[in-house]
Amino acid sequence: MAKDKMEIGVESKPRFEFRSFGQNFDDAAFRMGRLSAPVPEKVWERFSDEIYITSATNDINNTKIRDGKMDIKTYVQTLDGLEQWNPLMKGEFPISREVLENEVFSAFQVDMPEFSQESYTTDEFLSLVADHPDLQAVKVSKHRFGYMVNDTLCELATVLINGARLVSINSESTEIEDVLRTIDDLHLQGVANINYLQAIKRVIGWKDLPFAN
After folding, report:
1. Is the pLDDT assigned to residue 52 strictly greater than 60?
2. Domain span at 75
3. Considering its fold, how many domains does the chain have in total?
4. Considering only CA atoms, which of 12, 44, 24 is closest in space to residue 155?
């Protein structure tokens, strides 16, 4: 069976992802740039400001807010050291009490707060988060550079997590073999696979674990 061809900006089946965070991936970044196929100009360089909602009781649902929209991805499985994530929910603010109860706070896997109104703006939702003992809103700024190596979507990014600077590198595809080949070609064998939730929890002190370097 022919494999899915990865296309930047096009939804595909759930992808398998390698990502890591550290202070320096210069050697791998150099190789990524040299090995990359041409990519659309829109992904050469991108900036975004996002808010991740972290839960002290949950590592399987990744929730972020960007441009007034909420996006939740859920962890599916790990195969050959690569994590697979699947879209769980997409919503736009103002967001209804029903959606917050049935989809958002249930994904956080925490005690349900008391809702006093029928819909919530972004700021009102973040107030609920701030008042919850098991939740924390974290500001994440990304400066990303896109590539394509071995038909995998790749990225090098400078990331500020509540102002703490990290560098992230990743490769993702529906095809496990293509990602594993890319890890080898970028000389990233043995580097820890660290997703955004895990990186954020390290920064805010919820995980006592090291970064890749």
Report:
1. yes
2. 16-203
3. 1
4. 44
